[in-house]
Amino acid sequence: MGGAVSAGEDNDELIDHLKAAQYIRSELVEQAFRAVDRADYYLEEFKENAYKDLAWKHGNIHLSAPCIYSEVMEALDLQPGLSFLNLGSGTGYLSSMVGLILGPFGVNHGVELHSDVTEYAKQKLDFFIRTSDSFDKFDFCEPSFVTGNCLEISPGCSQYDRVYCGAGVQKQHEGYMKSLLKVGGVLVMPLEEKLTKITRTGPSAWETKKILAVSFAPLIQPCQSESGESRLVQLRLLKGTCDLVSRTRGS
């Protein structure tokens, strides 16, 4: 997916193109995109492609096209202080942008299937905190990444204000995804080849909007351990404060 806008020479020019094409429509989303340089989430040898409106994949590492991330960020309707769950959090690029909007009283969790990608995301987050000028300009809700299958989140975990899934959701898992959402919350996910926004308007009431046609790799089904037991993903949600202590450079 991608190719909806022209390539940029740098991150700001890419954002200019996304804004001109109406993929980026709000000031908060624009500020977050400008603050996080997409090239920083690429491997060094592939950075020449970072400002093209194209998806990128290398091994288990994957980034969606900028136009897709733009639509996702706009659809999530992010606000300071919300709780966010990123399923298939990948490089942490999206989670870092979201964290700039959530601020210090939000919650920012990511679940990633592949342990090598979780480690990659942590390294990129550390680089962002140590080197980016943007880190000093925003109140940042630092993402917390865990490794596990997002279809195996412990039933005892809290629900979230905003949820995004970065893999194609099969129809039989739609109800599970909805169960992760608080009343009043927003879920954005690829469902049956359409990027879909679902708002929970009541305990059993939902509003659904199809945003655009997309092609995502499907969710990988859980596999049992040798003991025959599933490996539940534990998430700790502390409402009212970002659940990681804010870091400063040099710490």
Automatic annotation (TrEMBL):
<dbReference type="GO" id="GO:0005737">
    <property type="term" value="C:cytoplasm"/>
</dbReference>
<comment type="similarity">
    <text>Belongs to the methyltransferase superfamily. L-isoaspartyl/D-aspartyl protein methyltransferase family.</text>
</comment>
<dbReference type="InterPro" id="IPR000682">
    <property type="entry name" value="PCMT"/>
</dbReference>
<dbReference type="GO" id="GO:0004719">
    <property type="term" value="F:protein-L-isoaspartate (D-aspartate) O-methyltransferase activity"/>
</dbReference>
<keyword id="KW-0963">Cytoplasm</keyword>
<dbReference type="Pfam" id="PF01135">
    <property type="entry name" value="PCMT"/>
</dbReference>
<dbReference type="InterPro" id="IPR029063">
    <property type="entry name" value="SAM-dependent_MTases_sf"/>
</dbReference>
<protein>
    <submittedName>
        <fullName>Protein-L-isoaspartate O-methyltransferase domain-containing protein 2 isoform X6</fullName>
    </submittedName>
</protein>
